[in-house]
Amino acid sequence: MNIAVSNTKEIALEQAIERHLTGTITEELAAGASPTGPFRIGRPSDFDARLALDTALLWEFLKATQGKALEKLKTRNPADWRAKILGQFDKLVRRNGVLHVLKKGLPVDDAHFTLMYPAPLASSAQSVHDNFAANIWSVTRQVHHSLANPNESVDMVLFLNGLPIVTLELKNAWTHQTARYHGRKQYRERDTKQTLLQFGRVLVHMTADTDEVWMATKLAGASTFFLPFNKGHNEGAGNPPNPNGHKTAYLWEQVFQPRSLAGIIQHFVLLEGKKTNPLAKKTLIFPRYHQLDVVRKLLGHAALNGVGHSYLVQHSAGSGKSNSITWAAYQLIETYPESLDLPGARALDVPLFDSVIVVTDRRLLDKQLRDNIRDFSEVKNIVAPAMRSADLKAALENGKKIIITTIQKFPFIIDGIADLSNKRFAVIIDEAHSGQSGLAHDKMNQAMGGGGDPDEEDNQDKILKAMRARKMRGNASYFAFTATPKNTTLEKFGTKQSDGRFQPFHLYSMKQAIEEEFILDVLANYTTYKSYYEIQKSIEDNPLFDTAKAQKKLRAYVERSQQTINTKAEIMVEDFVDNVVNKKKLRGKGKGMIVTQNIEMAIRYYKAVQAELAKRGNPFKALIAFSGEKEVDGIKYTEAAMNGLPEDKTRSEFEKDEFRLLVVANKYLTGFDQPKLCAMYVDKKLQHVLAVQALSRLNRSAPKLGKRTEDLFVLDFFNTTEDIKAAFDPFFTVTTLSEATDVNVLHEVKAALDEVGVYELAEVEEFCKRFFEGEDAQKLSPLIDTAAERFNKDLELEDSAKIDFKIKAKQFLKIYGQMASIMPFEVLAWEQLFWFMKFLVPKLKIKDPNQDALDELLEAVDLSSYGLERTKLNHSIGLDISETELAPQNPNPRGYRDDEPEKDPLEEIIRSFNDRWFQGWSATPEEQRVKFLNIIESVQSHPDYEEKYNENPDPYSRDLAFEKIMKDVMLRRRKEELELYKLHAQDQAFKSSLYQSIKDALRRAA
């Protein structure tokens, strides 16, 4: 008895794809079926394996669309016109790839043949529509492509006018064959000398099963690099269930449709590399699914909804945002309204946007945009920079369609957008990339003698601040790209849901990027060190101190000392040499970054690292990066002077193999893409967005160097694994905002500020009147100075009242500054007070009542020993896969709390501090000193001490001698000091600390 069951073999998937594209299948053609879909069914016998062409369809296309040019060529070359065309085609494709001839056509003698008619735009003439319809799209199954092995075939090939554009190997998970393993393996084992499989002969090689799709643009045997082409599922890898068919049906139902493929060829596929490079040295870029999807959804929404919208794109660091931005920028120029009643629509055949403004701090993006648009556009010089509102106007008058500016200059461009109200703009904000550090000081504030706000702004804050002054105008749409949206960014650019929450318009999560192996998991190999210290009280009296502040001050004191930095630098260099250099990670090209708390610490670390390298005979070089000039110990330093090269060359010099370590404070923690980075040494508080951005410097994949997750290593001296998990969790999957910020808190805060009497409302109004009329700063200063004098002296406010006023003033500035451009209404009094307070706050002097006592604290103690204890070794930090919902701004007014701080005598603070940080071994402080003294005496009495150490001028051999002496001493003492010997033998951090302390003691004794 025969029972009909479903066909679940590989051929069933072939047939399903063929039927969807053509309306029938090859097996039904013999029975008289004919294709009804947009694709034809190609015959395998028409495929020329030597040229990788369906010659029958090529001749059919040329005869039907360019018969006159073909006849002209035939007349002049009656015997070999076909050979002439095919020979010229083969020569050009070998030199430039099939993409070139698809876009540029094929010149043969005095004829020029178009090999692909582009998809029409709304403004295109009817002839463009007709030409596009004349393209012949075809799919051929079982294409025998190999001259060396005629039985070998590719499951499916898609052709355009006879030219191959996509190869497809199919697998079926139901028969235990997967694209991820078997499909990729099959491509890797194929003979890449065969024409069809040579680089550039097709646009992309794909392998698919019913669950996943993978792609590669260059077949290179075992080293072929495949990327996923999947939609993502549950914010991770893979594809969601499809209620109507296979999970991967989007590939043939959407991506392979003629309009879609034509758009990919025209607007997405890129051949990157120097013009002078041969084809083999170039890189072919085919968009990944999330890149294709976000650009098309942005364009589609703009066409359906017009101008005046905001979009938040949350795409993981390292996921290819540069290309997504480039593709979006170019195509937004040619986005047309679907109907005339949309905001900003002028005509159905007139683009929505006059110009696209790209706001970025990435220098490389400027060049990338220019190069890519040169490939895409017939009109070449349509990109221009703009640093002032006048530049914006000039660029538009000169026909520039894409205008690039920086985050620092964005406020001037905002003014220009408002002034040019008859123009329509698409503003793309690449906010998450700034390779610089420091504050953007307000010019007027500087002119009036005001200082900078001590709270540093990141790029999201700067963008919102620039947009604050002007409400969202109807003549601009904003497209913000970030991996790490803050709550204010979500509220500004996110999409508001029916329940009041704000969500990103499009998501490509860190979780998906890691699971798809596009970026590496920087948290997979995380080691933390806990510093432990002993602080010795150096005065007899026992004053009381605020415990929490004292502990914080003591730690800062210890961490800043050169002794501490030397110890850590020794561990860092030793680890880097042992685990990166000697192990030849990344094929001997691995690099490391040392992240420090501030510029002073960076300078001290750099000097300590240089000293450590000198001891080792300078096996490689280190660089330092910081902005501006910094004075340390009475000496002024700059990045250029310390590195011995111009500041703008640091990035490119670090690319060279001789430079392996880079010491930074804030600069290069964001926006610095160096795929060779595989180790990071952290001695800085990392939290929130900064933690994700800084550690993500390591996650860039480098397939050519064989970079894997296990090559990454983070050694953290400052943060706990719990700290880092808390920072990464919100951005691992999707980030949303629970509700809008309640701005009514501004009423309460303003009322509390008004009541103190520091300013009169008439003074606030007068200041704003003069300020916005552009009066000289000298005329504004008296109004600010009068209010500042009341606060500082005339009102005789208590210290606690002053602190309370300044906290509330800064809270007002922060909340109003971030919310002004979002609020659906205007409150003039808030706007005026904002501008007045902006200049007043820097002049308000407050004093911490405990500051003097804390300063005395550092004079009351000295650092008697320092060590490090490894607390988590190669720890993998697991992140929370659930959606993270951020809360809006704190709706409660803030102020000074007059709680009595917990106070302890100095002796108790020192004891608790040592209990907390000095847990290296169980000896009492006095016992530790006795042991130290005994070790010192043993070292000094060692037979090699005088000649090989004490009197040795060579630091490298001197250091080696010291290591040998210490090993001998510790070996001899192991019976009487077993605990000490175990720590010395088993804990590298303890050993380094011990050796450093002995050296310091010997130096003092000398």
Comma- or semicolon-separated keywords:
1006 residues, 35 strands, seven-stranded mixed beta sheet, seven-stranded parallel beta sheet, single chain, 39 helices
Structural overview:
This protein is of the alpha/beta class and 1006 residues long. It contains 39 helices and 35 strands. It has a seven-stranded mixed beta sheet, sandwiched between helices. β16, α14 (389-397) and β17 (402-405) form a beta-alpha-beta unit. Mean pLDDT is 80; it is low at 1-8, 432-456, 532-537, 909-914 and 916-922.
Terminal Cα span: 101 Å
Trace the largest sheet across and list its strands.
1-6-7-8-9-10-11
- Tell me roughly what share of residues is in helical segments: 40-55%
Radius of gyration: 34 Å
Shape: globular
Number of E-type strands: 35
Give the strand content: 15-25%
Q: Give average pLDDT, whole number.
A: 80
Major pleated sheet: 7 strands, mixed
Low-pLDDT residue intervals, each spanning 5 or more residues: 1-8, 432-456, 532-537, 909-914, 916-922
Structural class assignment: alpha/beta
Q: How many helix segments?
A: 39
Task: Compile the SSE list and pairings.
Elements: H1 10-22, H2 26-29, E1 40-41, E2 47-48, E3 53-54, H3 55-65, H4 67-76, H5 81-96, H6 98-104, E4 106-108, E5 111-113, H7 126-133, E6 137-144, E7 153-160, E8 163-170, H8 179-188, E9 204-208, E10 213-216, E11 227-228, H9 250-255, H10 258-267, E12 270-272, E13 283-285, H11 289-305, E14 310-315, H12 321-332, E15 355-360, H13 363-376, E16 383-385, H14 389-397, E17 402-405, H15 410-419, E18 425-430, H16 443-447, H17 459-468, E19 476-482, H18 487-493, E20 495-496, E21 502-503, E22 506-508, H19 510-515, E23 526-537, E24 544-546, H20 547-560, H21 562-581, H22 585-588, E25 591-596, H23 599-615, E26 621-625, E27 629-632, E28 635-638, H24 639-643, H25 650-654, E29 659-664, E30 677-683, H26 688-695, E31 713-716, H27 721-732, E32 735-737, H28 745-756, H29 761-772, H30 777-794, H31 799-819, H32 828-840, H33 851-860, E33 861-875, E34 884-886, E35 903-905, H34 906-917, H35 925-940, H36 945-950, H37 955-972, H38 978-986, H39 988-1005
Parallel strand pairs: 1-6, 8-9, 14-19, 14-22, 15-17, 15-18, 16-17, 18-19, 23-31, 25-29, 25-30, 26-29, 30-31, 32-34
Antiparallel strand pairs: 2-3, 4-5, 6-7, 7-8, 9-10, 10-11, 12-13, 20-21, 23-33, 24-35, 27-28
